[in-house]
Amino acid sequence: MTVHGLPAPSADTALYQSIMEAGFTAFPERLANWRRFKAAQRGERLDYLPVKLDVEHVSRCNYRCTMCQVSDWPKMTRAADMTVGDFKSLLEQQIGVVEIKLQGMGEPLLAAESFFEMIRHARERHIWVRATTNGSLLHIKENYKGLVESDICEIQVSIDGARPETYEAIRRGGKFERVAENCRLLNAHAAQDGRERTRMWVVVQQGNLADLDLLPKAAAEMGFKRLTLSLDLTSWGQETWERNNEALDAHDLLPVEKAWALVEEGKRLGVEVTFWAIDSKYDWSDPAKLCPWPFERAYIASDMRVVPCCMIANPDVLDMGDARDLTGVWTGERMAEFRRAHLEGRIPEVCNSCYRDPPAP
């Protein structure tokens, strides 16, 4: 199917803009970097630093989801947690950053206190911050309050089903009723605190197609006002996971008519329903439709290694260098060659799952 014409998720524009402007005022060098970024053409070597980062402060999880590479890792752990010191040093170095996703392959609330400290530090530097959680730990030590009160800008909660049997078959290790109650706690506190910045996020796959009609109501009952259905499963840049997730993929199994019906049902319930799809955007044959990651952002793994993007999210698959010298990595030859391959239509094999009909190597 195509998602052309369906509503896509977006950040709170007013909040995003106000944070960005505050950052430009507080850090003139950030504004100068942003202007260079906006004026530049895509090239192999860039005269600006990344403007966005994905920062994975933990690479461990308490779930074994059927479509996630963490399920392959011993004890669902890849590496040690990122220290608060390394996080702060990274932001001191990266003067151009206006936006951070503070989460990677791990469950961020496994390191709740340091997680909240990182959010607060980034927000003090006027950086827009979002994160994704599986929601299972929100009730522990009232983490739902700590998350909202850290002043995070968007909280996405992954809930891949509207019924316990569906959810628990995909989110292995999770308990649907516990997560649903945690979401009610989170959304009630967010409303009370005046920071309603949550979003229910569903990875659509064959195992939850039967629940799609139930999702807007489930979102409303948990207190969400935004629901996004993601229509892509990534390969994580690995052949084994490409085969696994191709068997689970349901991208072509959701009729556009049903998608629009979900939008209308959401409106009736006061829930904004949107759709996300990667391979509807990236086209190797059109320079304007190349993946933007190599030209604007990077993924920093918990052990301070640089990965090209969140769809690989594992430096053991592709390691671009030491994030303690991210500027050197960003301006170095390895990243230049990675960009050159995209610009010349030689899409790296690890990137194929994000492109429509990638060329043969």
TrEMBL record:
Domain of life: Bacteria
UniProt-listed Pfam families: Radical_SAM, SPASM
Span of domain 4Fe4S-binding SPASM: 291-355
Keyword Ribosomal protein tagged: no
One Gene Ontology term of the molecular function aspect: metal ion binding
InterPro entries from the UniProt entry: 4Fe4S-binding_SPASM_dom, AdoMet-like_SPASM_containing, Aldolase_TIM, Radical_SAM_PqqE_MftC-like, rSAM, rSAM_sf
Keyword Iron-sulfur carried by entry: yes
Domain Radical SAM core: 56-189
Co-factor requirement: [4Fe-4S] cluster
Record CDD domains: Radical_SAM (cd01335), SPASM (cd21109)
Protein name as it appears in the record: Radical SAM domain protein
Keywords, in A-Z order: 4Fe-4S, Iron, Iron-sulfur, Metal-binding, S-adenosyl-L-methionine
Alphabetized PANTHER family for the sequence: PQQA PEPTIDE CYCLASE (PTHR11228:SF7), RADICAL SAM DOMAIN PROTEIN (PTHR11228)
